Amino acid sequence: MRQYLNKKRTGIIEKFLGCKLADLDLGAGKSTKASISVDINKEFRPDIVADVQCLPIRHETFDSVICSHVIEHVEDLNRAIDEMKRVLRKNGIAIFFLPDDGSMLWRILRPFWTIYYETAVSRQDSPKSHVHSFDLERFGKTFGKSFELLEVGKINFGMEIYAICKHPLIGERCTLNNVSVRT
Fold first, then answer.
1. Could you give the CA distance from residue 155 to residue 147 in angstroms, rounded to a whole number?
2. How far apart are CA 31 and CA 168, in angstroms?
3. pLDDT at 78
């Protein structure tokens, strides 16, 4: 099942970046989707052990960043967003994947996914550790303030939100107008 879900994610990455890997994977977990992996859990053996809220990376280092199933776990969402923008070059692309808490199917499967994660992956990454809850509207309102949203949609039977975001140039206004939303 995880392979199927990951295949959908890598398809989106490839479609928007033109390659299978981003430059930086924030919260990479056991299987990175980038050339350089960052995770807070050293047991996953990332290239850099760090919290997404405080990255030991120079400003404007990367052209593309992926953040898959991480933002719902962070305490200070604004700080994490600021850090992502800081390490991303102007006009760089950030790709997000996260559970859609508005999805009926996700609400049904969440208890089973929690058991699976706590026994097979990592207790700290379990859905029980989610601090934030997102649906398409809340994601757009939260991230549309900081990024230009190029496309926002749902994958994996509607249980997951994906978003393709661009780091705006200085002075560009972030807007939700003309965003492509796919359901």
1. 21
2. 29
3. 93
Burial class (CB in 10 A: 0-12, 13-18, 19+), 173: exposed
| Whole-number Å distance between alpha carbons of 63 and 182 | 24
Task: Indicate left, alpha or beta for 171 from its phi (over 0: left) and psi (-120 to 50: alpha).
Answer: left
C-alpha distances (whole Å) from 46 to each of 24, 51, 57, 92, 125 are: 11, 12, 14, 22, 15
Query: Tens of pLDDT along 93-149?
Result: 999 999 998 888 877 876 776 666 667 655 565 455 667 888 889 999 999 889 999
Q: Global pTM?
A: 0.84
CA pair distance 18, 31, nearest whole angstrom: 20
Name the packing angle between helices 77-87 and 136-143 (round to 10°).
60
H or E element at residue 7: helix 2-17
Computed over every residue of the chain, the mean pLDDT equals 84
Question: Domains of the chain (ranges plus CATH)?
Answer: 2-182 (3.40.50.150)
